[in-house]
Amino acid sequence: MQLQLEAGYESMEGGVCAAAGFSANGCNCGLNPDKNKNDLGMIYSGRLCNAAAVYTSNRVKGAPILVTKKNLEATGGKARAVIVNSKNANTCNADGEQKAWRMCELAAGQLRIKPEEVVVASTGVIGQVLPIEPVESHIAQLAAGLAPEHHEAAATAIMTTDTVKKEAAVSFELNGRTCHLGGMAKGSGMIHPDMATTLNFITTDAAVSAALLQKALRDTVKVTYNCLSIDGDTSTNDMVLVLANGAAGNEEVSEEGPAYEILKKALYLVLLNLTRMLAADGEGASKLLECRCTGAPDFETAVTAAKSVISSSLVKCAMSGADANCGRILCAIGYSGAQLDVGRIDVELASAKGRILVCRDGNGIAFSEEAAAEILSEDEIAIHVSLNQGSASATAWGCDMTYDYVKINADYRS
């Protein structure tokens, strides 16, 4: 997938290690019986980092989130490392926090840092006890292999039903210094966030205060991860973490202004592209869906309508079958809760094959079914909704729903 960028920002390789001073690694410790698949990952910064994080809004939260929140509170928002496993979520377990803390201790022992300076995360099956022995027996190997070039090993270690790794990074100028910001993400199903989604680890060598880093993350999540839905289920282990180590040597960004906006845009571009990758790799998906809602009276109205469209099971199925059914789109907008005059809505469908108007002033219109089917045969589909009731806009991302989604989730634990 080609990255969407803006002037002044250049794409680069390296993912979570694109920023100076970061290294990573991944290995198979035995949690995943397939020895060809990594299930344990680590990220490390030689310098203490300012950290910012957002977590799932689900009242059932994984033990790693509870431990991570305690660690960041204890350090005043500082961290130096991440230890993460896949295959087991370590959630709804009586010994969950004990195991999560043990993972922090193991990582800290190898890296010679404080356990509180470690962020811990897990993903996988919920409600199954996490065996700690595989982590204990492989932590030395994992830490010994830390290197910037091993970012892919870490990116694959967090995959569950993902079919591809997800990495993005950009370089940009900040106060006369070249800075870098990049990251990795995982997620394919159980995605319908109300804060963030999946597991996402972002790093930057820019110097920025913890307070502004947290503000930038919260604001950016609202227009990226919060606008993503695969299947309507909000995970128990969702986390987005940003680490900033200041290795680029720029003057610390400590107040809002031009420098802050440049940094925030870099964060937006990386999260935007990771969001698109997550949507395109939805469980069983064959098409990336993007709903662009314009002409709204305010952002909340626009995003509410856009998210409702890409969350609709009927819209997702229609897009899977290349069926230009505008009725399903209007229906989803109608029950979204957004206060709108439906008699002013226009809907247009588009892809690399062209564009076609299917609704004007809230009513379906005649169009070529053959042309529409050709447009909807592409693997990236845009749904343009013009509300014609203001100047605000928002975009939401999702995917189509195929038979494979049921197959994947019918035997997920096996």
Write the layout of secondary structure elements.
Layout: E1 10-11, E2 22-27, E3 40-55, H1 63-75, E4 78-85, H2 96-111, E5 118-122, H3 133-144, H4 151-157, E6 166-174, E7 177-186, E8 199-204, H5 210-222, E9 239-244, H6 258-280, E10 288-296, H7 299-311, H8 313-320, H9 326-334, E11 346-351, E12 354-360, E13 363-364, H10 369-375, E14 380-386, E15 392-399, H11 403-410
Parallel strand pairs: 4-5, 8-9, 10-14
Antiparallel strand pairs: 1-6, 2-3, 3-4, 3-9, 6-7, 7-8, 10-15, 11-12, 11-14, 12-13
Helix pairs in contact: 1-2, 2-3, 5-6, 7-9
Detailed description of the structure:
With about 425 residues, this protein is α+β, with helices and mostly antiparallel strands. Helices cover about 30% and strands about 25% of the residues. The protein contains 11 helices and 15 strands. Strands 1, 2, 3, 4, 5, 6, 7, 8 and 9 form a 9-stranded mixed sheet that branches. A hairpin with a 2-residue loop joins strand 6 and strand 7 (about 175-185). The longest helix is centred in the middle third of the chain and has 23 residues, at about 260-280. The chain is globular and about 70 Å long. The protein starts with 9 loop residues before the first strand and ends with a helix. The model has no long low-confidence stretch (mean pLDDT about 95).
